[in-house]
Amino acid sequence: MDSRLIYLFVCVENACRSQMAEGIFKTLTDSAAAKSAGTEIAGEINPVAIEVMKERGIDISQQKPKVLDKEMIVDATKIITMDARKTVLFGISRKRKPSSGEVVSVEIITPMKGMSGGVHLMLC
Question: How far apart are the first and last CA of the chain?
Fold first, then answer.
């Protein structure tokens, strides 16, 4: 079993923002693990997200959308929601009562064709 801290990035479809956050996080440290999941997953990762990340030297093309399940929630050290307005936090807290500071909301700009300025992570 992996003894590292586990950061779980959650959004609705697990096709764009949470996948990008997982990819970025994995390039920042080896001392913690990153995972991502969605509450209503898409069939594939958004091709624009793959392209935007590739431009920044990060390959997320082999990642697959994953549905959020109880085991992921229980195993996570920190749960980071990518869009608190759409992600069902109530469903997360019903499965495991998060401790103070355990769930963090992050806004990440969804990439679109022709978007300039890069990928931005802003902790809220």
Answer: 31
Q: Phi and psi for 48 in degrees, rounded to 5?
A: -70, -40
The amino acid sitting at 89 is L
Contact 8, 79 (CB under 8 A): yes
3-state secondary structure of 33: strand
Phi, psi values for residue 24, rounded to 5°: -65, -45
Q: Which two tokens stand for residue 20?
A: 């990008």
Residue the block writes with tokens 């499965």: 95
- Pairing state of beta strands 5-11 and 78-81? parallel
pTM of structure = 0.72
Question: What pLDDT, in 10s, does the model give residues 10-39?
Answer: 888 999 989 999 999 898 888 899 999 998
